[in-house]
Amino acid sequence: MEKHIVTIRSISHITHDTLLIITNKPNNYTFSPGQATEIAINKNGWQNEPRPFTFTSLQGDPYLEFIIKTYPEHDGATDKLLDVNKGDELILHEVFGELTWKGDGLFIAGGAGITPFLAMFRELAKSNQHGNSSLIYANKTSKDIILKEELETLFKGRVHHILSEEKTKEFDHGLISEDIIKPYLADNEKRVYVCGPPAMMEAVEKLLKDMGLSQEQIITEAW
Ligand SMILES: Cc1cc2nc3c(=O)[nH]c(=O)nc-3n(C[C@H](O)[C@H](O)[C@H](O)COP(=O)(O)OP(=O)(O)OC[C@H]3O[C@@H](n4cnc5c(N)ncnc54)[C@H](O)[C@@H]3O)c2cc1C
Fold first, then answer.
1. From 3.40.718.10, 3.40.640.10, 3.40.50.80, 1.10.730.10, which CATH number describes the 106-220 domain?
2. What is the pLDDT of residues 39-75, one digit of tens each?
3. Which of 19, 50, 144, 179 could cross-link to 139 by cystine, CB 3.0-4.6 Å?
4. 3-state DSSP helix/strand/coil percent for the chain, to nearest 5?
5. Which among 32, 43, 78 is the best mutation to test ligand 1's pocket, defined by most ligand atoms within 8 Å of the CB?
6. How far does the centroid of ligand 1 lie from the alpha carbon of residue 112, in Å?
């Protein structure tokens, strides 16, 4: 199995439970926006506990960036990442993933499921091609929203937030529904990208199929 040891240059919280991790980049390590790798912590007992995470840096950047939501209740690798510091090492494996840019569409993300879309739109924005797509971004509460301002810029204001566990004046409340999706489908070629926790992906895919979209129009990858 391909194996690269990288050193953490910085690690910080970008929300109450989500980390931004920057590492050095191995030589000749190539990936496309939306792709991921398996990462393990290079500490005793954790080297053989890899978990998949998406690159949020771009191929042209001289470093790697990851945005990682932590789940202390799993007592797993993401909880352990909360004890990791600058100078500690991570073990990276092969690059994989089919969730890559296929053209404008509606992007539906839940929580940390925003990471592949963030990478795609950071790349598109570099050549000013972040044209006519919209984002529906589902979170539990407003404090779970990752990089709100950057998403506004990348999607040129076409961001629809929905919160399942908080009522606010600013954002929609509830779960993603046909009523929320419908207005965005009228404006594009009916290509929908979906990424998020398994239960959310299953529910949204079913909704899209009930709305008449074919499997080919739904771009997704199991999380
Ligand atoms: C291709 C891909 C790319 C990804 N990219 C990212 C990314 O960029 N950023 C990101 O934050 N996440 C990403 N994920 C999700 C991430 O891999 C998982 O959140 C992570 O593996 C969870 O690791 P863990 O050690 O916390 O949990 P694990 O110990 O690996 O637990 C695995 C699963 O078991 C279940 N589970 C375990 N314990 C509990 C519990 N106490 N209560 C409820 N359920 C439990 C959960 O369903 C959990 O997802 C990606 C996933 C895939 C497949």
1. 3.40.50.80
2. 999 999 999 999 999 999 999 999 999 999 999 999 9
3. 144
4. 25, 30, 40
5. 78
6. 10
